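ARCHIVE CARD
Drawer: 12
Card no.: 0347
Subject: one protein chain, sequence and derived structure
Cross-reference: see card 0346
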Amino acid sequence: MQTTHSNHPRSDKPGNWHELVIDFAVYSHILLFFYTAFSKLITYPSFLKVLSDLPVIGQWHELMALTVIFSEILFGLLLIFPASRIRGLWCSISLMILFTLYLGYHIAVKSKLPCSCGGVISGLTWPQHVIFNIGFILLGVAGILADKKLRAINKIFSRGSR
């Protein structure tokens, strides 16, 4: 007697939950990076002003603004295409780590730090922002680990079907 767990077309495929973790990590990062990039573009003069007032970045604010926006859009695009999504997750994690370290440094030295993140994210307190970033870092890591495990599962099953 054969039982079916779900009517979903991928339900009989091994590693199904791995795909869900990967998809959730990828789509969450796409949403985050496109949202923040376009929010910064819409309020570009304000974004430039905030960056010009930041310690360390101040004199490089125009270059930094373009670099951050370009990186967020590029990493979002990498995440869209299946062939580059894991590379996109690695890039996303790296950028989030850089943002988090920069925030952590300014929190530690008690800098007066304005937020240039854009949209509703700019309403977070700095400790909340660090936690938010760490959550996205962990989500990206979970996506990469799930992809690695899924590849191992698929390799095992592809050997058995020869």
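Annotation on reverse: The chain has five helices and no strands. The radius of gyration is 19 Å.
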